[in-house]
Amino acid sequence: MSITYSSIADDRPIFSAEAYAAVEAAAERLPALYVPSVLEHAAELLTSLWAIGGEHSVPPAQWSWTENMAKGVLDLAASPYERALETERTDAEVTFLTDFLLGALVSEEIGLRAQLGARRDYVVVDRGPATPRGGQSGDSDILVAISNDGGWFFAFSDMHVRRMPVMAPASPAGAHQVAEAIRAFVHGELGDVFPR
Questions:
Q1: Along the 196 residues of the chain, how does pLDDT read in single tens digits?
Q2: φ, ψ for residue 106, nearest 5 deg
């Protein structure tokens, strides 16, 4: 089992390539997008579980239910970003994160065209030539937001009811990862991610 090491000075193992691949495969079958930090956290959990199994003479190759385990650790790693919060985010917190998201989307690095929504609590991103068709007319722009009581999501701007959750931290770093995911969607790299 190959191990990826932390860039931090202690060089402790973080996650194995096999665990990351298992978590990534589990994520591809779920109706949400997972940013790299959430995938890495889940892979770290899975690597630790496999290591504990190894201490008890149960190597990962003997675990026939590994895919379910990968999904389980992915659910666990993503749970802080998708479920209703104990205390709702304030409007000021939503506005702060939305402003940061807008800055990331229009940055030179990501390079999308976007503007704040009317109440400054969401961003509308212009679609590109390779953006999957969607919305009532098939050519809707993309609405991206974070809710007061949950996580990040995006939708076609004229069909808010069909939302795609984006599992990412509610932080500036998370907003940047969401912007990266939206860039990939707008450029057609993810295909049509909305469930039929």
A1: 444 444 343 454 588 888 899 899 999 988 899 999 999 999 999 888 888 877 777 776 666 555 588 888 888 888 888 766 667 888 999 999 999 999 999 999 999 999 999 888 999 999 999 999 988 888 899 999 998 888 999 999 887 668 899 999 999 999 999 999 999 999 999 998 986 6
A2: -95, 0
Q: Is residue 50 a contact partner of residue 60, using CB atoms and an 8 Å limit? A: yes
What are the strands, taking DSSP E only, across 66-151? 114-116, 122-125, 142-146
Closest CA to 123 of 133, 108, 113: 113
Give me 41's structure tokens. 């956290």
Q: What's the one-letter identity of residue 131? A: T
Place of tokens 């990534």: 24
CA 127 to chain centre: 20
Could you report how far apart the first and last alpha carbons of the chain are, in Å? 37
Q: Which residues contact 126 (CB under 8 A, 6 or more apart)?
A: 112, 113, 114, 141, 186
Are the C-beta atoms of 180 and 168 separated by less than 8 Å?
no
pTM: 0.83
Q: Which residue has the tokens 């984006």?
A: 166
E strands present in the chain: 3-5, 13-16, 33-34, 114-116, 122-125, 142-146, 152-156, 164-167
